[in-house]
Design a protein that fits this description.
Blueprint: E1 4-13, E2 16-26, E3 31-35, H1 42-50, E4 57-62, E5 65-66, H2 72-75, E6 77-81, H3 92-102, H4 109-125, H5 140-152, E7 158-162, H6 170-187, E8 190-195, H7 198-204, E9 207-212, E10 215-220, H8 222-227, H9 232-237, E11 244-251, E12 254-257, E13 260-263, E14 278-283, E15 288-292, E16 306-316, E17 321-327, E18 335-339, E19 351-356, E20 362-365, E21 371-372
Parallel strand pairs: 3-8, 3-9, 6-7, 7-8
Antiparallel strand pairs: 1-2, 1-4, 4-5, 9-10, 11-12, 11-14, 12-13, 14-20, 15-19, 16-17, 16-19, 17-18, 20-21
C-alpha cells in the first residue's frame, strides 16, 4: 500500500498542455477514481503514475519517495487497462503466473510459491475451474478477471486501472463493479481508477476527482460532488439524467427564470450579488415533478414554482420514468427533464406542468460558472 502525491504535475505534447499544474494526494489504501470526458487527460495522468511517460513539470511521490524519474519496473505498480492483453498462447494458469516467472521465481521453493499464489488469486476471483482454459475459451468478464488476477498476484503497492470495464456489457459491468469494490475492501491496497463513466466513479470510489481539460475541477466523496458541486461542469457531468440548467436573473432577493419565481437569499458574507445579476439555475431532474397540465395543483404555495410545456420524450428506466419537456414558444425552445410520479400516465405532445421543489436547486455565476452558496443549495 502507498500514499500517492502529485505536486504541480504538467504534461505537454508539442504546444498542447494536456495536464496543467495538477496537485493531488491519494491516501494509503484509498479507492480513488479520476473521472472526466474523453480527452481530459485522465489516461495521460495514469501513464505518468505508471512510469510509461514522464511529466513535463512537477513531481510524483509514493510514500514520500520521489519516483518521477523511476522506470515502471522500479515503482512496484500494477496496471490493468481496457484491452485485457492476455497472452493467447498461454492457459489461464500461465497468464496468472507470468509476472512471478518474469521476476525469477522459477525453481524449487520459488516454483512452489508461484503455484500457491496462483491458487490464492484464482480462489479470490473464482477462476479455479478456468485455470486450464485458453483465453479464446473465456467470456469477456472471465478475461477481465484473469487480467485483474495477473495484477493481483504481484501484490503491488498501487493498482492503476484504466477503464477496465468499458468492453463489457451493462449487466456485466455492474457485476464487475461490485467485484472490484469487494476486492479492494479485502486487500486494502491503494487503487486509482480512471473512467469516463460517472456511474462507475460514483459507485466504486471513496473519493472522486473530476478532471476537465487537464485541470481538476473538484475532489470529494461521491455524494459531496453530487450535492455540492463547486462548478457548473461538475454539476452537469455528475448525475443522470443530466442537471437542468436555465438562465436566471436575481431581482428583489428572488430568482427569476421564465415562469419560475423562486425565493433566494444569498449569504451576504459569502456572495456579493446585486439586483439584475445574471446567474445559471441548476435543478436536478428528481426535483421537478411532471404531471398533466389539466391536473396540476394551483395554489399560492405553487405560484412561481411551475414550468409549463409540451412533453417530447418519455424515458422508462425501470423503477423511474423521466420526462423531457419543451418550455417556451421559440423555434428552438429549451428543455427540462423531470420525473413522472408513480401512477401518472403521460403521452408525447401532451401539455404538462413541472413543479419545482423550492428548496432544492443550485446557483452558478453566469460568467465564472462557479457555484454560489445559498441557503437553498442542496
Amino acid at each position: 500500500m502507498a500514499e500517492v502525491r502529485l505536486e504541480g504535475i504538467g504534461k505537454r505534447f508539442g504546444t498542447n498542455d494536456v495536464l496543467s499544474s495538477l496537485s493531488l494526494t491519494i491516501h494509503d489504501g484509498e479507492f480513488f477514481t479520476i473521472v472526466g470526458p474523453s480527452g481530459c487527460g485522465k489516461s495521460t495522468l495514469l501513464n505518468l503514475l505508471a512510469g510509461l511517460d514522464k511529466p513535463s513539470a512537477g513531481r510524483i511521490l509514493f510514500d514520500g519517495e520521489d519516483v518521477t524519474e523511476q522506470e515502471p519496473r522500479e515503482r512496484d505498480v500494477a496496471l490493468v487497462f481496457q484491452s485485457y492483453a492476455l497472452y493467447p498462447h498461454m492457459r489461464v494458469r500461465d497468464n496468472l503466473s507470468f509476472p512471478l516467472r518474469v521476476a525469477g521465481r522459477t525453481s524449487g521453493a520459488g516454483r512452489r510459491s508461484i503455484e500457491a499464489e496462483v491458487r490464492r488469486v484464482a480462489g479470490m476471483l473464482g477462476l479455479e475451474p478456468l485455470l486450464d482454459r485458453w483465453p479464446r475459451e473465456l467470456s469477456g468478464g472471465q478475461r477481465q478477471r484473469v487480467a485483474l488476477g495477473r495484477a493481483l498476484i504481484r501484490r503491488p503497492r498501487v493498482f492503476l486501472l484504466d477503464e477496465p470495464l468499458s468492453n463489457l456489457d451493462a449487466q456485466l459491468r455492474a457485476v464487475m463493479r461490485a467485484e472490484l469494490r469487494r476486492l479492494h475492501d479485502q486487500l486494502g491496497t491503494t487503487m486509482i481508477y480512471v473512467t469516463h463513466d460517472q456511474t462507475e466513479a460514483m459507485t466504486l470510489a471513496d473519493r472522486v476527482a473530476v478532471l476537465d481539460r487537464g485541470r481538476i475541477q473538484q475532489v470529494g466523496a461521491p455524494r459531496e460532488l453530487y450535492d455540492h458541486p463547486e462548478t457548473l461542469f461538475v454539476a452537469a457531468f455528475i448525475g443522470y439524467p443530466r442537471i437542468n440548467v436555465l438562465d436566471a436573473v436575481l431581482a428583489d432577493r428572488r430568482l427569476r427564470s421564465g415562469s419560475l419565481d423562486l425565493p433566494c437569499a444569498p449569504a451576504a458574507a459569502a456572495t456579493d450579488l446585486r439586483n439584475g445579476a445574471r446567474l445559471m439555475l441548476g435543478i436536478r431532474p428528481e426535483h421537478i415533478r411532471i404531471v398533466p397540465k389539466e391536473g396540476a395543483e394551483t395554489s399560492p404555495e405553487t405560484k412561481g414554482r411551475q414550468v409549463e410545456g409540451v412533453l417530447r420524450l418519455l424515458e422508462h428506466t425501470g423503477g423511474q420514468t423521466w420526462a423531457t419537456v419543451e418550455i417556451g414558444s421559440s423555434s428552438d425552445p429549451p428543455t427540462v427533464v423531470g420525473f413522472v410520479p408513480a401512477g401518472v400516465s403521460l403521452r408525447p405532445k401532451q401539455a404538462v406542468t413541472g413543479l419545482v421543489e423550492v428548496d432544492r436547486f443550485h446557483l452558478f455565476d453566469a460568467e465564472t460558472e462557479r457555484a454560489i452558496e445559498t441557503p437553498n443549495s442542496v
